[in-house]
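INTERNAL TRANSFER SHEET
From: sequence group
To: structure group
Subject: ATPase

Please process the attached sequence and return the structure record in the designated field. Keep the field labels unchanged so the import script can parse them.
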Amino acid sequence: MGEDYFGRIRSVYTRLNSLFFKYENEVLGALMATLSRENYLLVGPPGTAKTTLVYALSKLLNAKWFYRQLTRFTDLEEILGPINIAKLLDGKVERIYANSIIESEFALLDEIFNASSAILNTLLSILNERVVYDGEKVVPVKTWTVFGASNRIPDEEELQALYDRFPLRVFTEWVSPDDTEPLIIKGWELRMDLERMEPLATMDDVQAVNKIITQYVYEHIKDISKVISPMVANYVEHIPISNRTRVKVPMYVATYLMLHGIDIGNTELSPSLLMVGTIKVLRYLVSNKDQLNEYYSFATVHMPEDLLRLSELLSEAKALINNEVYDEARQRLRDARELLDQVRGKWDATMVKLYSNELSELEELLKRLEDALAGNRR
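Return from structure group:
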């Protein structure tokens, strides 16, 4: 039963990755947040496609979305909807919720930390409880996922509670100058594709997948926790993570694995899969960009031994080439090429897919070093 749901959601994931240039982390985080019914924060300078990503996701899921850029002068009516004047004339204070955040399935709040205190207080209940306290009424909010966008991390004390309501975070940057040409080409393709984009799945699929994964995690939480808890505990010694967020890590891990081809409920989540999934999702739980270096160190230490050895061989070869010790460098590269071929041959398809980025990066480095050595034959 889950396969159709899973397949359609994965097609959305694949399509988003094909649309954007070097945006894999941002795309993955957006899908993880959506399937976990979680809030997701994109931090980065203007012009890094944050708004476009949420817009494309909403189109591919045929979801009703709400967008506002927040300032100190944004008032509640812009978020919750205007007062119904006809009712007000009858002495009743009611809002028109149509086209407000209350009636949306996705909400993107741009420059969220610039909002007024009144807006921020309203957002806390939306982010945490999916309700709005409007006067004496408690109004359920239909919003499934709230996306926040900001060019800064808040350091004000009064904003820390709001910041913690976005446990999944990604820090995005402008691409490097060397990538300008492919960026321009991909940007124009994206611009045209957005206009003719058709849905590949629905919010019903999202809700079905969420239900399947939630039920699976609940039924297997003791086994899952036994595997991932030591790793998370080790991680939080370096990077603090709140209790609220730690409890949600199993859901994020299962969602990550589903997006990478694991049929949750039909495939046993082995300890090795759970460990890889945990390593991968922890990058989304850092509080600031500086902590990413801590994450990378943690992820490197916990890489499979074959990848660690491959990385060491390439580092040694690079140092030898720089010191013009070409014969020994050549042997290191031969060993690295042999090990890389062995990894691709002996690893199962799932592990190769989960570490596809790392394998591709190591293979690119290997090729560059081989080319450099070829230019210095002696």
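Handover comment: The domain at 11-195 is CATH 3.40.50.300 (Rossmann fold). Strands lie at 40-43, 65-69, 106-110, 131-134, 137-140, 145-150, 168-171.
Transfer complete.
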